[in-house]
């Protein structure tokens, strides 16, 4: 049986039309979307993708999806991306895969952002998972203390015992808050810290969220 992530991913393909520039998100759910998109392209669909991570870029190239970049166009018709948490207002928490900065640039450039998730990602309030925050490596110790002052427990993300390094050469601090009452306000506060590059809070950005739950699809609209 098709898993829910794949089902949500495939349901997003209907929104992609001939001639579009498509923002390609990151993560395992997006990878299912890329596989289906590659099939449509082989059947004759003409699109160009702008990837939001080096991983997505590599996989899209492997699948034969034509790519472009912001040096050719700054207009994205539609972006399709995953998320780690989605609340009832369609605010998102992202960055579990560490691609939040490029994802936000791509998602914000899109006329329409479609999020694809399985039902495990739906929450009544954001903050069950730690909030990923991308920080400059220089002075990350200071930046992390300043982030903690907003009421969370920050943990520097590591891989093989070393700091995880994002596609942009930065670190990620995973910040566990008791709960996130106002995602926009928290995002704005964190962004005021000089060493913070970007937060994984994406409030008021998704136009649609496609949720697959035990083989059934729900499409939420903002
Ligand atoms: O924000 C992300 C990466 O930075 C991903 O979209 C998010 O982690 C969802 O991943 P998956 O589809 O593998 O569950």
TrEMBL record:
Residues involved in substrate binding: 26-29, 81-84, 94-97, 121
GO biological process terms held by the UniProt record: pentose-phosphate shunt, non-oxidative branch
Catalytic activity: aldehydo-D-ribose 5-phosphate = D-ribulose 5-phosphate
Signal peptide: none
Homology family: Belongs to the ribose 5-phosphate isomerase family.
Function per UniProt: Catalyzes the reversible conversion of ribose-5-phosphate to ribulose 5-phosphate.
Protein name (record): Ribose-5-phosphate isomerase A
The organism of origin for this protein: Oceanobacillus profundus
Gene that this polypeptide is encoded by: rpiA
